Amino acid sequence: MNQNNLMEKIISLAKRRGFIFQSSEIYGGLAGVWDYGPLGVELKNNIKREFWKAMVLSREDVFGIDAGILMHPRVWEASGHIEFFNDPLVECKICHQRFRADNKDLILEHENWHKEKNEKVSWTEPRNFNLLVEAYLGTVEGEKSKVYLRGEITQGVHVNFKNILNTLSPKLPFGIAQVGKAFRNEISPGNFTFRSREFEQMELQYYVYPDDEKSMEYLEYWKNERLNWYISLGLKKENLRLREHSKDELAHYAKGAWDIEYNTPFGGFKELEGIHHRGNWDLKRHSEYSGEDLSYFDLNTNKKIIPYVIETSGGVDRAVLFFLIDAYFEDKDRVVLKLHPKLAPYKIAVFPLLANKPELVNLAYKIYKDLKPHFMTAWDDRGNIGKRYYSQDEIGTPYCITVDFDSLKNQDVTVRDRDTTAQIRVPIDKLKAYFEEKINQ
Ligand code: ATP
């Protein structure tokens, strides 16, 4: 399949079937912002739920928080966002990295880096670029105070470090996870939802002893955990890779940085999640800027220490997009989204064989109503069975149930598998147990 063509097909399917719409479309749209429709919100929520299950619910050493989108403006001074992003910057049109326009050495080095890969860099015009989206709080004109919509969810965790220590008294190593919206004034949003101005992140800040060697083992550990999480939910291994940041990409405080990248149809491998060893930079900066002591008291040595942090920072919208691309499959005359059952918006669809036979409709509807509180279940009685199957295949529903005349006699139904199209009979009173095993395995 032609790769550009593939993106067109995904975008068209996403719109036609209610996964993703352009924001404010009836007003001509708003660049870089997207609305998730009834199916998109299920897929997105399923991804976030699986993240939370893997990172918080199933672990003893990670806690969750949900910090505000608006934060004290000093947060962004401490994080370096305001300082860095108020300089005139140029952006590399290939990889979207930004450099201070006056930093000729770095710019040349970057051009050479691309040249080695036979790529010729072109740059945007230098401009005073502020990545952060500004907002104004207060009701009296002239007395409003400027705040920023958070540019990353990370800082909401670091500023709560002390609250977590005081309330839960966790022992190192421990982590704080968060999922939520972030906003960036991206110069060039594009490639569907890949680069948006409003997007969601799913993150973990994992605090460890400030031991140079041992902390690198945690970096290794989280690289593998996160990569395997994507694979366990169905992203093809061969479409993923871990890429180490080159020296010119590495922040001065970082002790190691890797990206999990996905092989996209729009220019090859692109970042899905960053796994970064940030040293103690964040806690140190917030201590300095807030005047609060953000150290951890180590009972083993009776000393205060500033932990190191390993950060895993993934994009929920990029995950949605890449799961869609990876699952897209054309099989003779049907399109199938081979989404993992845990991610599929609907798990089951229920059909009466014929819509004009009340006895079939009644039994099918009863099955639908019984399953719906336990599994996201769709109802369809339009057209013929073949069309209904194809319609469910296209949105990734793993199982379809058909109620026919034998069902009335034998109290069983046909269950059809999306991927193999194989059909088996299952007793109606065993359906719940059957799907529990299939979907939650
Ligand atoms: P990029 O280099 O692609 O701009 P980044 O290095 O700026 O990404 P981070 O700041 O590390 O990204 O953010 C962590 C994650 O948040 C990224 O891996 C990505 O999945 C997601 N993300 C970042 N920017 C955007 C965006 N503009 N739209 C959608 N997702 C984004």
Tell me about this structure.
With 441 residues, this protein is an alpha+beta fold. Helix content is 34%, strand content 27%. The chain has 14 helices and 24 strands. A seven-stranded mixed β-sheet has the order 3-10-11-17-14-13-12. The protein folds into two domains: 3-71 and 147-326, Bira Bifunctional Protein, Domain 2 (BirA Bifunctional Protein, domain 2, 2-Layer Sandwich), CATH 3.30.930; 346-439, Anticodon-binding domain (Rossmann fold), CATH 3.40.50. The chain is globular. Residues 96, 152, 184, 186, 195-196, 199, 201, 271-274, 313-315, 317-318 line the site of adenosine-5'-triphosphate.
How far apart lie the N and C ends? 32 Å
Instruction: Kindly provide the name of the CATH class of the largest domain.
Output: Alpha Beta
CATH topology of the largest domain: BirA Bifunctional Protein, domain 2
Examine the secondary-structure arrangement and name the CATH architecture of the largest domain.
2-Layer Sandwich
Strands, count: 24
DSSP helical segment count: 14
Unreliable segments of 5+ consecutive residues: none
Strand content: 25-35%
Order of adjacent strands in the largest pleated sheet: 3-10-11-17-14-13-12
Bound molecules: adenosine-5'-triphosphate
* Number of individual domains: 2
The CATH homologous superfamily of the largest domain is named Bira Bifunctional Protein, Domain 2
Molecular shape: globular
| Average of per-residue pLDDT values | 94
How does the major sheet shape up? 7 strands, mixed
Q: Which structural class matches the secondary elements? A: alpha+beta
Radius of gyration: 25 Å
Helix content: 25-40%
